[in-house]
Design goal:
mainly alpha, 8 helices, 2 strands, about 5% strand
Length: about 160
């Protein structure tokens, strides 16, 4: 009877993500400094297209984690890292400087390691998701209200 090797743990199966996050966030170093950067920073210099491409790659990494059974909480935190990276990364020049320090993909790799090696970030994300949805709904209603008030004031000034 042939000996079967045990199937790899989800973490061992995802070690390639370390290579990808290194490529995106820390592959290169500015000579004479400890500042590291990767393709995320370089592609972010291309307005719009670079940010969209790195957002897509980061999203795929989270999708892989979801398919490997990561908890809702760790996925929620990973998506939060990506959203921050995208929001601040969209600001010309300042967003690129933000990318040098924030490194969302390395943060997500660290979350993955904590999740699989230490059992951290377990549980459902429904509580935080509902809270975020309610806050976004409130902001949406507030925005509509402010637009309506501005529009009604303009109408009164015109007529």
């Amino acid at each position: 009877m042939a000996h079967q090797s045990p199937s790899p743990t989800p973490y061992e199966d995802l070690k390639w993500l370390d290579t990808v996050s290194d490529l995106l966030d820390t592959r290169y170093r500015i000579p004479g400094t400890n500042i590291r950067f990767g393709a995320d920073f370089l592609l972010g210099l291309i307005p719009g297209a670079g940010d969209a491409l790195t957002f897509g790659i980061s999203g795929l990494l989270v999708l892989v984690m979801a398919r490997k059974g990561a908890s809702g909480m760790v996925l929620f935190k990973m998506i939060g890292n990506i959203v921050l990276d995208v929001i601040f990364g969209a600001i010309p020049i300042l967003g690129d400087l933000f990318d040098l320090g924030y490194k969302a993909n390395r943060r997500n790799l660290h979350l993955m390691e904590e999740h699989y090696k230490e059992g951290r970030h377990q549980g459902s994300a429904w509580g935080p998701v509902i809270l975020v949805a309610l806050v976004l709904l409130g902001l949406f209603v507030l925005t509509i209200f402010v637009i309506w008030r501005i529009f009604s004031e303009l109408i009164q000034l015109i007529f």
